[in-house]
Amino acid sequence: MSISKTPRYIPANIEPKWQRKWEADGLYHSDIDPEKKKYYALTMLPYPSGNLHIGHWYAMTPSDARARYLRMNGYNVLFPMGFDAFGLPAENAAIKHNIHPKQWTYDNIAHMREQMRSMGNMFDWRREAISSDPKYYRWTQWFFIQLLKNELAYRQKSLVDWCPKCNTTLAREQVVGEDRHCERCHTPVVKKELEQWFFRITRYADELLDFTDIDWPEPVKVLQTNWIGRSEGASVVFHTEQGDPIEIFTTRPDTLWGATFMVLAPEHPLLKKITSPEQKTQVEAYVAETIRQTDIQREATDKEKTGVFTGGYAINPVNNERIPIWVADYVLMTYGTGAIMAVPAHDQRDFEFARKFGLEVRVVIQPPDMPALDGANMPASVPARGTMVNSGILNGTPADEAFRQAIRFVEEKGFGKGAVNYRLRDWLISRQRYWGAPIPVLYCEKCGVVPVPDEDLPVLLPDDVEWKPTGESPLKLHPTWRFTTCPQCGGKAERETDTMDTFMCSSWYHLRYLSPDEENAPFNQEEYDYWMPVDTYTGGVEHATMHLMYTRFFHKAFRDLGVVKGNEPMLQLRNQGQILGPDGQRMSKSRGNVVDPDKQVQLYGADTVRAFLMFGYRWAEGGPWEPGNITGVQRWLNRVWNIFLDEPQVGNFDEAGAKLLRRKLHQTLKAVTRDYEQFEFNTVVSGLMELSNTLQEARAEGASAAPVWKEATSIYLRMLAPICPHIAEEIWERLGLPYSIHTQRWPQVDEQATQEEEITIVLQVNGKLRDKLMVPVNCSEERIKELALANETVQRFLEGAVPRKVIYVPGKLVNIVR
RNA sequence: GCCGGAGUGGCGGAAUUGGCAGACGCGCACGACUCAAAAUCGUGUUCCUUCGGGAUUGUGGGUUCGAUUCCCACCUUCGGCACCA
Fold first, then answer.
1. Are A669 and A749 within 8 A, CB to CB?
2. Residue that is last in its domain, among A728, A753, A778
3. Predicted ipTM of the assembly
4. Nearest 5°: phi and psi at A764?
């Protein structure tokens, strides 16, 4: 009939406008306010790869929505953003496009910062921290020096993982998969013997296993626990016939009497000495062959056992038996002591080895549910649960009891002691690349390793460098940077030319946000005392055994050095899933399935993209991008716009309608509030959609002229504001409500209004739904049962039988059992 | 092999403490508006059905008056670890 007098909803006309205004007004500035309860909401910072990915939107938007929700609930919320700006891609791009890594990085940051602004997040950009800024890495270097001074950083020559494509060493955590490939470029790694810097994360292994202070997702805790790999057992010292000690670690000291041979790793230092002249040729050939093999070949689990007798013998301290010593590659030098006692009867690996080489298999544990075992004929090793046999003093003891007794025994006799072993290795942080924070130490001919004095920090990364990757740090090739004088003796000194693993930079960025311009300390103490710890941290699970473990280690180490407080840096962690391409595959340029968020914003507007990402998926799960589904959200926001801004309609909306509308309004508010708390964003949106359907129907009946409409509008827009900040602000303003909606308080649920007057009672016969009953809320149990039994459908299904039982669940159902 | 997550309509997903399975949305079908189309609005939409009802939350058991929810076994799938002594 008449064309709407209000303009249509055109996101492009309102979104940039509000973003500029919020920025100009400093609406999202977070400053210390002792009057208010603080909330530190942190979401993982991106690497400045050049473009924001739809995955960044997926991770950041719900975090932003929840931060906004908390702010409306009266918290003083800190929600900062920055860039994890050091790292390899900058160098690779530099080589490819002949552009300086620094320029490439900062150009990307400038672009991505603008992309992030288009999301309409409440980031306080004054607190932006960029890890490649000298004012940032000056403190990364300072942290390194503190670790060094406190023996938590050390330099050691060892066999380390090397990525031949990235031309650098990697931490154990950065080597992944069955084929042991580089986490970044997927090239299989090789071993190299190099002198590298390590952090003593292993010293904190036990504490890292303790999650009592934090609310983290179970899977992350499991991943970290498995990665740390704590095993309890004993370390026992065997001796060779010549008297050389060989220490072994075992998780089954109870099976000591069943050890029929020993195995050394091919790299074991004692191997040469043990080997008899007759066996020398064979052993040397075996070791040479083993070393030629890659780790992948060596560590393949399905591989047949190989090994060679050394000619040497050891004495088992518990029974003085003489047992042969073999060398085999199924024993790893990197775990335990690189030597084992072999108990073939109760360990499948030892069993396979023993059978192949005709070694004795001696049963020392008889499982209760098996016939008497015979070592010579058993087809496989058996689980070590049962009663001890052939074990001297332990005979007749249950195995779990024998475990403790054996430890006591070896301790008393001085053969060994109870011991704990970890799979976790120390964190290798040296990288032979240019674009990273230089490791701030000097090597002086006279003084040795010298930390760079505080007043000389930062050790600046020189700009004029040839960054072609040679396998050595490009800094090594710099003509002048490398050579300097020793601050202690004034003599000739050389700089460390390796840079730090970027995970070192990201281990403390949450602290730099507190005061990114602070010059006298890594962070301002007052800011720290107010904001820390991080209340909620959000990001992907893929960081479980890397960043998330490193940052916990970092915090605990610096707690012990008196720099930070508390046991944990991040109290609550929540993981989002991943958005896959429309084909269900990981998004990648090579697959051509990448969804560009900028284009989506252009097509639908930021609010629609935000709401869709929250509505279409279980946040923790993620899933494939469904190109069509976003239209549902687009339609919804169009409807919302029209519901609140179109001319009122005339109808017969009455008091009863108003009461129903208020009920739905407050019921929704209650549900939505709960869902924001619980990170269930899809039901926040669906709840708002449902309510908008109700509002639309009520409106057609003339509700927008009724007094209740004002309340509904105000509550609805405030519930919408965290998800769709622009449209909520725009409608709010057009309705003449006070700027800004984002500084309004979260609405209060009117519990009374949510109460139903009538309830539906489900009628079941033998547990099957047969009919429904509408009764007043206060209807008595007797009356409801009476009505239920009198019900026509119920009667029909009873077929005249007398009910055996009538179950009444208050307010829910009546189940009649016949 | 071990550890962990997930299996619900054609699709994404919902179901709060063991109590109406399939909310909300996509898609589809039909209708209204339109010369027509788009947009919008309305109605319907798990499957089978003799229209009474029956079946149904990966499969098979169990507990219970009642199970998507709890227990046991298994299958599929996605992650992690893997000769770790």
1. yes
2. A753
3. 0.94
4. -120, 145
